[in-house]
Amino acid sequence: MKRFIQHEELARDSRFVRQDNRQSTLLAALPDDVDKVVDAFEQFSDMIEASVKGTAAEPLFEAYGPAFALTVLNEPLDPDAPAGTTRLLLRMHGIFVGEVQALEGSARSLWDFPDAPWEFKMNMARQAWDEARHVQIFEKLLTHLGGEVGMFPESTFLFECACSKDPAMRVAGVNRGLEGLACDVFRDMIRYAEKTGDEKMRQAIDYVLADELTHVRFGSEWVYEFTKDDPEYLERTREYRRTVDKQFSFGGARSDREDAAIPIAWEDRLEAGFTEEELEDLASISSSGPSRKTLVEAARILRERHLAKRAPSKQPETTEAGR
Ligand SMILES: [Fe+2]
Ligand SMILES: [Fe+2]
């Protein structure tokens, strides 16, 4: 019987639009160099445009060009910023599909390792149960904010990181890397809900965050269990998690930098079993990459070129979604 499935094979209904994962990983590899960032986005421009066609992200593309993701990812969420609601919905939708993939990832960890201890399977079953509840919570929050399922394209690169065939690597990447990222994002969303006085959103995400801490703990415990008496194996799982962490730092957007859109949830992570040393390491991995100044400048150039291509006689400020 087939055991390991690829991310392209994930089942979705007709509401979902699939995005090429290369776009999502683009930011992780960029240097702190305006020209190189501009070149990279121009190279992907057609693909980015095709992936947002007919979705709620199309106006963002029209307003900002191929680098609209830079504006969305690298600026802190602000209800008063241009296209603030669209950006909030884009993040919320990203979290929603992330939860769907977290459910698929934890459920496959239960299925993929038939020889793992019973307690491991119970933990993965518990996580799948939690993630199913999170899917429902974020679907409701998406509606609460005025959005709907399938309004933005879905990238499955989160699930891609849940495809390691080794159980220790799997929990290192998923439960410590990705679930750790969830802690950072959810703490940021709670701060946003406090700022806007949205008590429903604040409380719902606070409940979800409590579950995510447990999922990180599963990772912390099982990585040590699977690699006990084999320090070299433990080191390899650390390296793998560092790769995942780098990938999901979005070029420093999620980091401990002063200009980070999503800061590292230091206190939550300590509670979930990360050590100070690991967090210092995460801070240094995630902080490398283009500075905010570089990205802002690259986004400006890309937007200018995009608008010039669209309507040579129009001024950049005249677009609808840019207001
Ligand atoms: Fe979750
Ligand atoms: Fe989780």
Secondary-structure-derived class: mainly alpha
Beta fraction of the residues?
Answer: under 5%
Low-confidence stretches: 319-323
Please tally the helical runs, counting DSSP H or I stretches of 4 or more residues: 13
Could you tell me which ligands this complex binds, including any ions or cofactors?
fe (ii) ion
* Distance separating the two termini: 54 Å
As a whole number of angstroms, the C-alpha radius of gyration is 20 Å
Short characterization:
The chain has 323 residues and is mainly α. It is 65% helix and 2% strand.
Q: Would you give an account of this structure?
A:
The protein is an all-alpha fold and 323 residues long. 65% of the residues lie in helices and 2% in strands. It has 13 helices and four strands. The protein has helices spanning 21-26, 34-52, 58-64, 68-74, 84-112, 118-144, 157-160, 167-196, 199-226, 231-247, 266-271, 276-287, 292-310; strands at residues 17-18, 153-154, 254-255, 262-263. A two-stranded parallel sheet has the order 1-2. It is globular and about 65 Å long. 44% of the residues are buried. The structure holds fe (ii) ion (FE2) (2 copies). One fe (ii) ion binds at residues 99, 102, 131, 134, 182, 212. The site of one fe (ii) ion has 6 residues, from helix 5 and helix 6.
Ordered list of secondary-structure elements with their pairings:
Blueprint: E1 17-18, H1 21-26, H2 34-52, H3 58-64, H4 68-74, H5 84-112, H6 118-144, E2 153-154, H7 157-160, H8 167-196, H9 199-226, H10 231-247, E3 254-255, E4 262-263, H11 266-271, H12 276-287, H13 292-310
Parallel strand pairs: 1-2, 3-4
